[in-house]
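Minutes, structural biology subgroup

Action item carried over from last meeting: produce the C-alpha coordinate record for MAP1B protein (Oriolus oriolus). EB confirmed the sequence was re-checked against the source entry. Recorded below for completeness.
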Amino acid sequence: ISKGPGNSKSSKSTAVPPGPPMYLDLVYIPNHSNRKNVDVEFFKRVRSSYYVVSGNDSAAEEPSRAVLDFLLEGKAQWDSNMQVTLIPTHDSEVMREWYQETHEKQQDLNIMVLASSSTVVMQDESFPACKIEL
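Output recorded by EB:
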Protein backbone atom coordinates (compact mmCIF):
# COMPACT_ATOMS: atom_id res chain seq x y z
CA ILE A 1 0.00 0.00 0.00
CA SER A 2 1.36 3.36 -1.00
CA LYS A 3 1.79 5.96 1.70
CA GLY A 4 2.32 8.94 -0.59
CA PRO A 5 1.14 12.47 0.22
CA GLY A 6 -2.42 11.71 -0.91
CA ASN A 7 -2.62 8.42 1.02
CA SER A 8 -1.12 9.33 4.38
CA LYS A 9 -4.22 8.45 6.42
CA SER A 10 -4.83 4.83 7.22
CA SER A 11 -8.26 3.37 6.58
CA LYS A 12 -8.67 2.53 10.27
CA SER A 13 -8.08 5.55 12.50
CA THR A 14 -8.41 3.52 15.70
CA ALA A 15 -5.22 1.53 15.16
CA VAL A 16 -2.71 1.91 17.96
CA PRO A 17 0.84 1.56 16.61
CA PRO A 18 2.73 -1.59 17.63
CA GLY A 19 5.13 -1.41 20.53
CA PRO A 20 5.30 -1.49 24.30
CA PRO A 21 2.69 0.21 26.51
CA MET A 22 2.93 3.98 26.99
CA TYR A 23 2.57 5.30 30.54
CA LEU A 24 1.12 8.78 30.88
CA ASP A 25 -0.19 10.93 33.70
CA LEU A 26 -3.30 12.31 32.00
CA VAL A 27 -5.13 11.18 28.84
CA TYR A 28 -8.17 12.68 27.17
CA ILE A 29 -10.13 9.81 25.62
CA PRO A 30 -10.40 10.84 21.94
CA ASN A 31 -13.54 12.03 20.15
CA HIS A 32 -15.81 12.42 23.18
CA SER A 33 -15.25 8.77 24.15
CA ASN A 34 -16.93 7.56 20.97
CA ARG A 35 -16.32 3.90 20.09
CA LYS A 36 -15.45 4.81 16.48
CA ASN A 37 -12.07 6.06 17.67
CA VAL A 38 -11.24 4.00 20.75
CA ASP A 39 -11.04 0.24 21.19
CA VAL A 40 -9.74 -2.15 23.84
CA GLU A 41 -6.25 -1.99 22.28
CA PHE A 42 -6.13 1.72 23.14
CA PHE A 43 -6.45 0.92 26.85
CA LYS A 44 -4.01 -2.00 26.67
CA ARG A 45 -1.35 0.31 25.28
CA VAL A 46 -2.17 3.83 26.51
CA ARG A 47 -1.91 3.47 30.29
CA SER A 48 -2.68 6.53 32.35
CA SER A 49 -3.24 7.51 35.95
CA TYR A 50 -6.10 9.76 34.82
CA TYR A 51 -8.49 9.50 31.87
CA VAL A 52 -10.81 12.38 30.97
CA VAL A 53 -14.16 11.04 29.73
CA SER A 54 -16.04 13.73 27.85
CA GLY A 55 -19.30 13.55 25.99
CA ASN A 56 -22.84 14.48 26.82
CA ASP A 57 -24.71 13.42 23.68
CA SER A 58 -26.73 10.25 24.14
CA ALA A 59 -27.97 10.37 20.52
CA ALA A 60 -24.35 10.16 19.29
CA GLU A 61 -23.54 7.58 21.99
CA GLU A 62 -21.01 9.88 23.63
CA PRO A 63 -19.64 8.76 25.95
CA SER A 64 -19.94 5.23 24.65
CA ARG A 65 -20.72 2.42 27.09
CA ALA A 66 -18.48 0.22 24.93
CA VAL A 67 -15.50 2.54 25.49
CA LEU A 68 -16.00 2.39 29.25
CA ASP A 69 -16.15 -1.42 29.01
CA PHE A 70 -13.00 -1.37 26.84
CA LEU A 71 -11.24 0.41 29.71
CA LEU A 72 -12.15 -2.40 32.10
CA GLU A 73 -11.05 -5.07 29.62
CA GLY A 74 -7.80 -3.32 28.74
CA LYS A 75 -6.89 -2.46 32.36
CA ALA A 76 -7.46 -6.11 33.36
CA GLN A 77 -4.51 -7.01 31.10
CA TRP A 78 -2.03 -4.55 32.63
CA ASP A 79 0.88 -6.13 34.49
CA SER A 80 0.31 -3.82 37.49
CA ASN A 81 -2.71 -2.73 39.47
CA MET A 82 -1.88 0.98 39.45
CA GLN A 83 -4.62 3.39 40.51
CA VAL A 84 -6.63 4.81 37.61
CA THR A 85 -9.01 7.74 37.98
CA LEU A 86 -11.77 8.54 35.49
CA ILE A 87 -12.78 12.18 35.25
CA PRO A 88 -16.15 12.59 33.53
CA THR A 89 -16.75 16.08 32.13
CA HIS A 90 -20.54 15.63 32.30
CA ASP A 91 -22.98 13.72 34.42
CA SER A 92 -24.55 11.36 31.88
CA GLU A 93 -26.99 8.48 32.14
CA VAL A 94 -24.46 6.20 30.40
CA MET A 95 -21.76 7.03 32.93
CA ARG A 96 -24.12 6.56 35.91
CA GLU A 97 -25.39 3.18 34.66
CA TRP A 98 -21.89 1.94 33.84
CA TYR A 99 -20.63 3.06 37.25
CA GLN A 100 -23.41 1.23 39.10
CA GLU A 101 -23.31 -1.95 36.99
CA THR A 102 -19.51 -2.37 37.04
CA HIS A 103 -18.64 -0.90 40.44
CA GLU A 104 -17.28 -4.17 41.84
CA LYS A 105 -15.06 -4.72 38.80
CA GLN A 106 -13.84 -1.12 39.05
CA GLN A 107 -12.79 -1.77 42.64
CA ASP A 108 -11.02 -5.01 41.66
CA LEU A 109 -9.09 -3.13 38.95
CA ASN A 110 -8.30 -0.13 41.20
CA ILE A 111 -10.37 2.31 39.13
CA MET A 112 -11.95 5.33 40.77
CA VAL A 113 -14.55 7.60 39.14
CA LEU A 114 -14.63 11.22 40.28
CA ALA A 115 -17.97 12.87 40.85
CA SER A 116 -18.70 15.42 38.16
CA SER A 117 -20.45 17.84 40.50
CA SER A 118 -17.40 19.68 41.88
CA THR A 119 -17.70 23.44 41.53
CA VAL A 120 -15.24 26.30 42.05
CA VAL A 121 -16.59 29.72 43.00
CA MET A 122 -14.43 32.75 42.23
CA GLN A 123 -15.79 36.23 42.81
CA ASP A 124 -19.13 36.29 40.95
CA GLU A 125 -18.52 33.20 38.83
CA SER A 126 -18.86 29.49 39.46
CA PHE A 127 -17.74 26.71 37.15
CA PRO A 128 -17.13 22.94 37.23
CA ALA A 129 -13.59 21.96 38.15
CA CYS A 130 -11.41 19.06 39.17
CA LYS A 131 -8.11 19.03 41.07
CA ILE A 132 -5.50 16.58 39.80
CA GLU A 133 -2.27 15.95 41.65
CA LEU A 134 0.47 14.47 39.46
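Discussion: The chain has one domain: 22-117.
Next step: EB to file the record with the rest of the batch.
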